[in-house]
Automatic annotation (TrEMBL):
Cross-referenced HAMAP family: 2H_phosphoesterase_YjcG
Regions that span the bilayer: none
Signal peptide feature range: none
Keyword Hydrolase included in the entry's annotation: yes
Family: Belongs to the 2H phosphoesterase superfamily. YjcG family.
Keyword Protein transport (UniProt): no
Protein's name in the database: Putative phosphoesterase ABC228_10480
InterPro entries named in the record: 2H_phosphoesterase_YjcG-like, Cyclic_Pdiesterase, YjcG
Superkingdom as given in the UniProt entry: Bacteria
Keywords: Hydrolase
EC number in record: 3.1.-.-
Residues forming the catalytic site: H34 (proton donor), H115 (proton acceptor)
Length: 172
């Protein structure tokens, strides 16, 4: 089964992202707006049984931190993906590194660029038009993050939460 790890932002940020995603992101019906911490990886039940205590340990070691979003950006020329750019945050980087070390699958395919996708798989002309308009918009969000989620993919391609891990909690 495929698993992944992500942070889901507040409803306010999700509503803003979804106002674009429903038109420009073919993955809109498959997963809510999120910040990917760990790309999809294959794991069986016994591997997940080993990883869940590790995820609890990582969450326990983290303190809540703030994320800030001030603009849109894109991954052009690699892909025609448009996203809300999450500003650099030391604790977010630290969390990402912890989830890519030790017992966790080593599946880093790209440098970590924290973001919330709002459009992808766009044609070149479509991308240019949409990105040009969105660059003129102002985005100002700041919020506290205090958890991350382990997700799994269903047969229909959609993703659902397997378990949430709250920062700073005691190990159970």
């Amino acid at each position: 089964m495929k698993y992944g790890i992500a942070i889901f932002p507040s409803k306010k940020i999700q509503d803003e992202a979804n106002s674009y995603r429903k038109r420009y992101d073919p993955h809109y019906p498959l997963i809510p707006p999120h910040i990917t911490l760990k790309e999809a990886f294959e794991a069986d039940d016994s591997t997940i049984d080993e990883l869940v205590p590790e995820l609890k340990r990582v969450a326990n070691e983290m303190e809540p931190f703030n994320i800030r979003i001030n603009k849109v950006s894109s991954f052009v020329p690699v892909t025609n993906t448009i996203y809300l750019k999450v500003e650099p945050e030391e604790n977010l980087d630290k969390l990402y590194e912890k989830l890519h070390s030790g017992k966790f699958p080593q599946n880093k395919n790209f440098n970590f660029v924290p973001h919330i996708t709002i459009g992808q798989k766009l044609l070149d002309d479509e991308y240019s038009d949409i990105f040009g308009r969105m660059k003129m918009r102002s985005f100002k969000f700041e919020e506290k993050v205090d958890r991350f989620q382990l997700l799994y993919q269903l047969e229909n391609g959609s993703w659902t939460v397997y378990e949430s891990f709250v920062f700073g909690k005691e190990l159970l």
